[in-house]
Amino acid sequence: MPYEIRLKRIYEPSDTGDGKRILVDRLWPRGVKKEQARLDEWMKGIAPSPGLRRQFNHKPERFAEFRELYEKELASDPLHQQLINQICQYAQEGNVTLLYAAKDPVHNHAVVLRDWVKKKLR
After folding, report:
1. Which of 9, 60, 117, 121 has a 20 to 30 Å separation from 106 between CA atoms?
2. Which of 99, 86, 80, 92 is nearest to 122 (CA)?
3. Which H or E run includes 111?
4. % of the chain residues with pLDDT over 70
5. Cα-flanking dihedrals φ and ψ of residue 47, to 5°?
6. For the whole model, what pTM was predicted?
7. What Pfam families does the record tag this protein with (predicted)?
8. Long-range contacts of 83-89 (CB under 8 A, 24+ apart)
9. How far is CA 82 from the centre of its chain?
10. Whole-number Å distance between alpha carbons of 46 and 26
11. Residue range 51-110, pLDDT digits in tens
């Protein structure tokens, strides 16, 4: 099953290879109009808890701990598990692009989520 799970900032233009476009942030990104986003789905519930997000505060030196704690949330929360299963189902049908607003393309929750989904698909 040749699927691809991509990551993309919501501010980047969509393209035909994106497949299913899913916003994985809890909050709507500043300055983006809904029609401009070209979303298939907004999965607010898959985002890290507000407390975990505040603790991480997009600081790269806190990313390893953030990853560990977010993975615990992904593993233990029934809503997270339901949404991950939905993403996996989409990935079996074609490409999936997880959209996020964070400026850092390496240290953000979408990276952790993509890696988690890929593990589940193996």
Report:
1. 121
2. 92
3. helix 109-121
4. 98
5. -70, 160
6. 0.94
7. DUF488-N3i (PF22752)
8. 83/43, 83/45, 83/46, 84/46, 84/116, 84/117, 84/120, 86/43, 87/5, 87/22, 87/43, 87/46, 87/117, 88/117, 88/120, 88/121
9. 14
10. 8
11. 999 999 999 999 999 999 999 999 999 999 999 999 999 999 999 999 999 999 999 999
Query: Cβ distance 23 to 57 under 8 Å?
Result: no
Residue corresponding to tokens 């996020």: 100
Q: Determine contact, residues 111/71, Cβ cutoff 8 Å.
A: no
Q: Which amino acid is at 40?
A: D
Residue with tokens 């049908």: 93
Instruction: Indicate the length of the chain as a whole number.
Output: 122
Please choose, from the candidates 26, 9, 20, the residue with its C-alpha nearest in 3D space to the C-alpha of residue 97.
Answer: 20
Dump pLDDT digits (tens) for 30-64: 999 988 899 999 999 999 999 999 999 999 999 99
